Amino acid sequence: MNKIQNLLPFISPLQWSALASGCQGEERNFFLEKIAEYSDRVVNMSKVYDQDGKGDNAIVHLHYFYGSCDWYITERDFEDEQHQAFGYADLGYGGELGYISIEELKQNNIEMDLHWTPKTLGEVKKTKPTYVVVE
Q1: Domain for residue 133, yes or no?
Q2: Distance of CA 29 to CAs 2, 22, 110, Å?
Q3: How far apart are CA 121 and CA 73, in angstroms?
Q4: Domain total in the chain
Q5: Taking phi first (over 0 means left), then psi (-120 to 50 degrees means alpha), and beta for anything else, what does residue 70 get?
Q6: Which of the pair, 69 or 134, is modelled with greater confidence?
Q7: Distance CA 113, CA 124 (A)
Q8: C-alpha atoms less than 13 angstroms from C-alpha of 14 in its C-beta half-sphere
Q9: Is the dihedral of CA 133, 89, 115, 60 positive or negative?
């Protein structure tokens, strides 16, 4: 299935196992629809530099999370093998823009948010708490 091949480079083996298991149960259609939705999103998302200069108007296509850490993907490389993406990472101390290794996210079983709705980077920033350093 081509949809699976499109999504595999973006999802951890552990999460993929859970999705595959869900496809075998009574909620099979839900999981198959999620795979199709996210596969299409990955294929059609912006490639690196497509959103350059958009700032907070750049669209966040994917969200990954673990504990209080969040990674928001705005663009991806379109190389033969997916190794990195560009986005906004917030590890609990305020966020910053930069390159994000999809492979590292996968290796550490960082979960892709399967209930994510694409939105602007500005909208994402508004939902994140602001941290103030007190000396």
Answers
A1: no
A2: 17, 9, 24
A3: 9
A4: 1
A5: beta
A6: 69
A7: 14
A8: 8
A9: positive
